[in-house]
Amino acid sequence: MEGTRTMFTIHCNSARDIRKHSYFPSEDEVLLLAGTEFQVKGILNQGHGLRTIQLQEVQSEEPMLIPVPSTNDSVDLSAGKLKSLKVKDDVTESKIISKQTATTTSASISKPKVDASESKFNKWKQNAITVAGGNGYGEGLNQLYWPHRIFIDKNKNIFITDTENQRIVEWKHNAKEGQIIAGGNKQGYRMDQLNRPTDVIVDQQNHSIIIADWGNRRVIQWMNQSQQVLIQNIGCHGLAMDKHGFLYVSVGVKNEVRRWKMREYNNEGIVVAGGNEQGNKLNQLKYPTFIFVDEDQSVYVSDRDNDRVMKWKKDAKEGIVVAGGNGQGENLNQLSSPQGVIVDDLGQIYVADSENDRVMRWCEGQEEGEIVVGENRNGNQSNQLNNPRGLSFDDEGNLYVVDSWNNRIQKVEIVL
């Protein structure tokens, strides 16, 4: 007899990131204080033996932490964010997505800042415009729920992996709400269902979309409401397609990126980055997430758990570090769990520095990057981000950011 599976969705302000101390480094883990109190906000039966319980942390009547006074340092224990917890079953991996935003202020430790006016290249307005979502988390057509990635077509229509809503939504240019174009039939493994999709690309030649259906371990194509599984049994996370039609897939659990020739998916593909077990050497990766492929078929990889971005040239046996790689941190030469990565026409690399709640720009060969947007700590104001994920440009050079934990897509306008 099959038992009931339970997924907890928790909104919490007191979690602390312990991933660096975990026995399972590929999984995000957090620590909660004993005695943390939660209120049940809802119980949803998803079908197929899956139940979702929504919890919200509530303020305890008794103080949980008493600050220790110091004459030297002033410590701000800002709100950590526990975003979702899943009970392990046969389909999904046990996963906790977490966030720590503890910061320290002292005479010797401060968050570096960059004056955007000093940039030699493009500049952006610091107050972004919300172009999708921004109405709280939920499954309404004007809402998103922890989105991951976007794809923008030539008409500025935005295709969004609405991850926790198990769907792909398209927001037409200047629309007030999106429309579901894939999934949206609850979490599941049927052909018309998705399970925590993490990436989407649009094949504009045949008007189809290709989805990294992470929880179902498959890459699936949707075309006119019909579906076809392209690649099966793959721990897919990020997707990219080059100008020749080759499809690239990052496989986080195998620490590699693979490439397939379009319409030839009945093979294991070719390893184009990583594939040498988990590690921090130049020929290794440690849970790669998002990827970008340039005109020369060089592959840029967000090497998440190594806190760096790697560039693997075509047919290379090892990569080069083009951003980060100096340990986890918030200095200008560091990243913290990088996610989205894109490269502009000048070869500048843009990185969603997720746990630092900012977007960074790096020029290849330089030791430091600069902050493009997100200098003001995590938050939900127009000049703030909260765990940014995917990045994209439109044809005018405006930058779009998936502001994941604010459940919105932000447009950062270029200054002409």
Please describe the topology of this protein.
Layout: E1 5-11, E2 16-17, E3 30-31, E4 38-47, E5 50-57, E6 74-76, E7 81-86, E8 96-99, E9 103-105, E10 129-133, E11 150-152, E12 158-162, E13 167-171, E14 179-183, E15 199-203, E16 208-213, E17 218-223, E18 226-232, E19 236-241, E20 247-251, E21 256-260, E22 270-274, E23 288-293, E24 299-303, E25 308-312, E26 320-324, E27 338-343, E28 348-353, E29 358-363, E30 370-373, E31 388-393, E32 399-403, E33 408-412
- Strands, total number: 33
Number of domains: 2
Strand order of the largest sheet: 4-5-1-7-8
Shape: globular
Catalogue the unreliable spans: 62-119
Mean pLDDT: 82
Total helical elements: 0
CATH C-level name of the largest domain:
Mainly Beta
Largest beta-sheet characterization: 5 strands, mixed
Q: What's the end-to-end separation, in Å?
A: 64 Å
CATH architecture of the largest domain: 6 Propeller
Structure description:
The protein has 416 residues and is mostly beta strands. It has 2 domains: 5-105, no CATH class; 118-412, 6 Propeller (Neuraminidase), CATH 2.120.10. It contains no helices and 33 strands. It has strands at 5-11, 16-17, 30-31, 38-47, 50-57, 74-76, 81-86, 96-99, 103-105, 129-133, 150-152, 158-162, 167-171, 179-183, 199-203, 208-213, 218-223, 226-232, 236-241, 247-251, 256-260, 270-274, 288-293, 299-303, 308-312, 320-324, 338-343, 348-353, 358-363, 370-373, 388-393, 399-403, 408-412. A 5-stranded mixed beta sheet has the order 4-5-1-7-8, with no helix packed on it. The protein has a 4-stranded antiparallel beta sheet with strand order 10-33-32-31, with no helix packed on it. The protein is globular and about 50 Å long. The chain starts with a strand and ends with a strand. GO terms for molecular function: NAD+-protein-arginine ADP-ribosyltransferase activity; nucleotidyltransferase activity. Its EC number is 2.4.2.31. It is an enzyme of class 2 (transferase).
